[in-house]
Amino acid sequence: AAAGGTVELGCGAQGDPAPRVQWHKERGDLPWGRHEVDREHTLRLFAVTPADGGTYVCTAQSQLGSAAATARLRV
User: Fold this and answer.
1) Model confidence pLDDT, tens digit, residues 37-74
2) Helix, strand and coil percent figures for the chain, each rounded to 5
3) Dist. CA 43–CA 60, nearest whole Å
4) 65 C-beta neighbours (distance < 10 Å), count
5) Taking Cα atoms as reference points, which of 16, 14, 17, 57 lies closest to residue 39?
6) What is the pLDDT of residues 4-29, one digit of tens each?
């Protein structure tokens, strides 16, 4: 991703009942004040910097168990 741009990371999680979806960064925190997660569980990072690079993890949990997927971001 180019520094200063917006990045979107998708996370397709479905189930009945609907799973609870959370995003986190493997090492560090999500950029404070520069991220949002929409209703489709897409993580948006705004005005990315090289410090935002790393591995992001989407975790979906329900009564039936949990699943996780990762995305690697390079800025």
Assistant:
1) 999 999 999 999 999 999 999 999 999 899 999 999 99
2) 5, 45, 50
3) 14
4) 9
5) 14
6) 999 999 998 888 888 999 999 999 89
Which three-class secondary structure state does DSSP give residue 43? strand
User: What is the CB-side half-sphere exposure of residue 75 using CA atoms within 13 A?
Assistant: 16
The beta strand positions in the chain, using DSSP E, are 7-9, 20-25, 35-37, 43-45, 54-62, 65-73
Sign of CA dihedral 64, 62, 13, 25: negative
- Give helix then strand counts, H and E, for the chain: 0, 6
